[in-house]
Amino acid sequence: xxxxxxxxxxxxxxxxxxxxxxxxxxxxxxxxxxxxxxxxxxxxxxxxxxxxxxxxxxxxxxxxxxxxxxxxxxxxxxxxxxxxxxxxxxxxxxxxxxxxxxxxxxxxxxxxxxxxxxxxxxxxxxxxxxxxxxxxxxxxxxxxxxxxxxxxxxxxxxxxxxxxxxxxxxxxxxxxxxxxxxxxxxxxxxxxxxxxxxxxxxxxxxxxxxxxxxxxxxxxxxxxxxxxxx
Length: 230
Description:
The protein is an all-alpha fold. The protein has two domains: 51 residues, no CATH class; 154 residues, no CATH class. 83% of the residues lie in helices and 0% in strands. The protein is built from 13 helices and no strands. Helix 8 packs across helix 12, helix 10 runs parallel beside helix 13 and helix 12 crosses helix 13. The radius of gyration is 19 Å and the shape is globular. The relative contact order is 0.11.
C-alpha cells in the first residue's frame, strides 16, 4: 500500500491525531505553558501541509474522534453527580454567575463586531462563541451566521480560556473552586472544563454544570436577539 492509498483510510486520521496528541502531552511535561490541544492541532496542520495530504482524507478518520466527543462530554456527568449536593447548596450564586457571564459574553462579542463595523452575518457568527460547539454551531446556522467560522471562534475561545482563565482568576483573587468552575464553564465550555478538572474535581464538576446551563440560557437569550437583529 502506497502512502497516498494509506492516507485515504480512516485509520490514518485516527493514528495521526493520537500520535500528535501523545507528542503534545510529552511537550507539555517539559514546557507547562503549552496547551496539548493547541499543540496537537498545530502538529496535525503542519503535517498535512508538509505532506500535501488533503483535509478530506484526514477527516475520514478525524470524524471518528469527533464522534467520541459526545461520550466524553457525557462522562462529565460523573464528577457532577459526585458533587451534586455541594452544587445544589450553592445553586443561587452559580446561577447568578452563569446568567451574568452568558449575557456579558453575548454583549461583548456583539459590541466588538459593532465597533469594528462588522456585518450582521459576522455578528450572529461571533456571538455564540462562548458556548459548547454543537450549540454554538446550531445557533449560528439558525440565525444566518457562518457555522464554520463559529466553530473556529468557539475553539479559540475555549483554548484561550483554558490557557489563561484560571491564572487570571487567581490573579484577581478568585480562588474558590465553585467560583472558578462557574467562570470557566460559562466562558470556555468543554475545553476549559477539561483543563480545570485536572486541578480540582469540584471545579470541574461545577464547570460542567455551568457549560450545560450556559448553552441553554444562551439559546434562549438568542431568540429575542434574533428577532431584534432581523
